[in-house]
Amino acid sequence: MLRIAEKIKRLGTETAFAVSAEAAAFAAKGNKVYPFHIGDLNFSTPSTVVNGTIKAIHDGKTGYCPTAGIPQLREAIADDINAARGTNYTMENVAVQPGGKPTIGKFILALLNPGDEALYPNPGYPIYESQIEFNGAVAVPYTFVEGEKNFVFEINSIKEKITPRTKIIILNDLQNPSGAEFSRKDLEELAALAIEHNLIILSDEAYFDIRYEGKSLSIASIPGMEERTVILYSFSKRFAMTGWRLGATIGPKEIIEVITKLNVNDESCSNHFIQYGAIEGLRGDQTEVKNILTVLKQRRNAAVDILNSIQGITCFNPNATFYLFPNVTSLFTRKGYIGYDSFRKDILNNTGVSFCTRIHFGRPFPGEKNYYIRIAYSGINLNELTEGLNKFKDYIHSLNDEKIHKRILTTSLLN
Question: Would you say domain 6-31+288-414 falls under CATH 3.40.50.2300?
Answer without folding.
Answer: no
